[in-house]
């Protein structure tokens, strides 16, 4: 904050005392809101999208139930933003969206359920996720999408998951037309019911009919008719040929050779299907085996249908007939054989026959083959211009586990179930992955995000990347905290400070239940670090006493109030008895203010509104004022709200005379001579956007002596205008200063030392005005006029304050101060001395960085009084009321390091000043900057099941591994990471395990890694744990003799190590986190090796995500198990041998000398 100056000799101090506080009105206006109406039964308002083209500015509104109640194909409306019209035009797109060469099922496709923009290519896109296609008699729902041109013309539709209905298939129907068939009409009916179930077309299914008795003949060939209607007409015209013999196998052979001949329309690569219908045993049974073998060789699938009518009518045993027809049918017989009691019953099997034809392996979809058939691609959509990729949610894929489809141009990548299987752990196949999708950007890497609101019933969000080979890698995942909350059903990524890097991910859980059992809803905030999500709490929203479904819609707003930060709007469509409301949240730095700056209820706009806030868009400026505007969907309506300009009003004051002289009483007030002064008050406003420039209508209140002291029960000053200490007036303030004069008289008072204050409080005159007062600017300022001071004949105080500040803290860039939970104090010794005339109202201000907070001052005396009047500033009055010439004041000011705001430097700027003129201001400022690190308080410990292992050299070496016991004894250890008082969101734990010696012999075999429940600890152990899959199959191993002599430790410097990397996130203070590593010691290695004792050492290392700021005292620990081999002879060191030789020689020399001395040789 600043200090404002009045007249040239007078310091006038500005103090922020308040801001708008809990006002619910900021710069989204409700006056002049435009309400568009549409058919509520069509769910008009389900989605809304802002767009512009050369014809104007528009809202596209989804009505996914359009067509109700006949069908709900869905459609999209366009609503003109400009002009007075409040009706919208249906685009009638529902019949323009189809896939060629597919049997489209457009009924109930819900077109308009998804609307999204593609800003990089200036396109729009709509989806109907329930669009279906008919394959045989089966309906599939792969979903459909289509781009819209800027003039809303539909482009060719696409369906990334569209199914191939069996591919080309050639069907030859062989009908028995002999004398025994009676009546013939059921045979025609059979064909007329079977043919509609087939997907007939040149690229799909072709049908031919051959009738036989004695000899076969074509009724029509495969390529004779192209459409279903043509085939139906031809089949209806077939008449019975009659004949006294039934040469079934000659007919089958004829069909095999000529029916499936290319000259008659057969297609290479098409599936071959033959349907044989007969009512009697054949007269050419001898040819059966040869004919059936030819069919098998040619790959012809055969259906055999036995009509038992003739046998039943003549009481003939049907056993031989059924046996013969079963021999015609392909295997397994139960799938390819039918029998009916009479000709009239043939039509009853056409449905089952058609399905079985459709489900022939390699030609149809059915049973366990379902993957993307019900995928509903387009349930959600998000376009990333960074990679020009469209993400499409497919919630119905893989039996409702869901997946995500990436489309770039004409290339489509459908990620398999296995891509997300490990992260979802979806046992019930109902995660609905893809319910919402978005992207995160860290400048160099694009991260994809998908929500799965039913994953494990509590919901989940998955962050992943895609490499050049189209393979996914799961970076992180977050689970919801409450069952049924639908956590992950809404996603919104936000670049708060507009630097191109995603700062936040907002995750909606609109069905979150409050403690009062109401669907309050909740929106969680996650900061983003290289794709890893760290929870930052949740937004403050509706009251927990009512259903609201807060978070049903979330939309980023590109800098609503032009403060340089992007903002967010959140819908709560069930609030206020289902009338609905929206909430505005403003960005600040790299986060979001969790307190909403504005709440707009639907009932305020229109008492008839329902579900206001069900959909939102706030991407564009729609009225030309450079401010983004907000479009809100409701039930059957869409409301266009207009953003308002923001005005920041500042007030300055000057006084004449600039001091109050109690001996000079020029004013006559009610017959009394009193001291008085004139206050010149000036208002000026700055505006965002800069044009237009207001004015803004305000009401201001002036208060004299606003902070009445205990020694004063009445104000020392009163306005001449009303003889009161309070005065309220209105003004229109523009960028040009507006100045007004007010005369104030001073009453008799014992306090003529403390300055008299004038407080100015500003508020908006009308809640609906445009522009609107800035919520985040000061709404109150305070100015002071002093009383006359003793400063010599010229009454001008010229002081010379000298400021000296020292601290005992020793720090440098190479040795920063280490702050811990038990050592947080930072103290400064402050000395102020005045070398010149009296310094009235002398004071020392200390402005400090946000990682500090003011604690105290010592000693506590009347000569030093410190108060914190502004954020991150403390002001100390010294030597009050005046610091006289050559006076000196010494005091200690104490700060404490904040554990919530961590920064790498602690900055404090000291400034000494007074109400007088300073002779040498250069020595009035002292800036101190201290490099800081924080002791994270992380304690690392470990515990193991054994510390010692004896390798029995007489034991047998096991070389065939069947169980883990064949490897060797268990060596298990648990690593405990204990957090302290610092909130450390992210920790990296690395456990290095020696797995092989330099000679290639195995040391430790990791069999399992266990982390505690709750998801705070996750380890990437897939490549390290049980690589041999012991127990699945037997393994043979071998061990070579190796010497460990001279090796004290087998650790990562003397052996090969594998590392287990774990992430601890969202950790809590004063908590413990565990990772257990279960291993086996390879006994074969230590039985075969040469050594006496060796330490098998694993290492544990923990690090914070910002090691330059958050340090860990003991961040590495060894985990040791000592392995010994009894009976092994140790090497005698060379030094010992050399020492022994030298010692023996010396002893021999000494003995010889003694013998010589006693004269042994002399005698």
TrEMBL record:
Residues 1-25 form the signal peptide. Belongs to the integrin alpha chain family. It is a single-pass type I membrane protein. This is VWFA domain-containing protein. Keywords: Calcium, Cell adhesion, Disulfide bond, Glycoprotein, Integrin, Membrane, Metal-binding, Receptor, Repeat, Signal, Transmembrane, Transmembrane helix. The keyword Signal applies. The keyword Metal-binding applies. It comes from the Eukaryota. GO terms for cellular component: external side of plasma membrane; integrin complex. SUPFAM superfamilies: Integrin alpha N-terminal domain (SSF69318), Integrin domains (SSF69179), vWA-like (SSF53300). One of its GO terms (molecular function) is metal ion binding. FG-GAP repeats lie at residues 30-88, 471-535, 536-594, 598-658. InterPro entries: FG-GAP, Int_alpha_beta-p, Integrin_alpha, Integrin_alpha_Ig-like_1, Integrin_alpha_Ig-like_2, Integrin_alpha_Ig-like_3, Integrin_alpha_N, Integrin_dom_sf. Residues 170-353 form the VWFA domain.
